[in-house]
# Entry
Amino acid sequence: MRLKADLHIHSNCSDGKYSPAEIVYTAIEKDLNIISITDHNTFSGSMIARKLAKEHDILVIPGVEVRTNIGDVLLFCEREIDFPREIHALIDRAHSENCLIVPAHPFDLMRLGVGDYVFEIRDWDAIEIWNASANKGSNYRAIEAAKILNKPGLANSDAHILDEIGSAYNLIETSELNISSVLEAIRKNMVKPVFGNPSLKTRLNRLLWSVESSTRKITKK
Ligand SMILES: [Zn+2]
# Structure
């Protein structure tokens, strides 16, 4: 079967606007079969969503966007694990737990992509080649990098508000709807990334949310 997956979404467990539950319901409405909530430095969002999703026809993969010493990296696992921030230690830990490690928006340096480290570190399981929230130029560079490195490419929304969910996604060919089969399908490049961008209205709403959430951070400090 061919399943629709958006594997980079933020909830209010980090800097996203909405709760894991609201994300799960929206993903179901949008006919996604698989999601990962990849909050900054915490599995919490995906673990909450995972409990809820058990009652519904959607698979939630435990995920996190780790701020490493070289930039932001997505980690997808079968269960929650602890994660070192030093990149080589993180890769070792990830692979010993059968997790996937994927540089997020690698050439979007404004958003702390790993940049040219993408070529230095050869152990990626895939590369996020299309991030619907990143600029097109950085996405095209990521597409080229995945070709050069011969790695599977993923397309994700990096949604922080509900309307962004599914604005880019992947069609994953897998025989079973469970986490280990989906992770294995990505490893084997049984993935067709589908590029897309949110509408102008959605992008404006995202911008408003970014301003609001950073103002909240400042007032909290
Ligand atoms: Zn992100």
Observations:
- Strands lie at 2-9, 34-37, 59-60, 63-67, 72-76, 100-103, 127-131, 153-156, 169-173, 191-194.
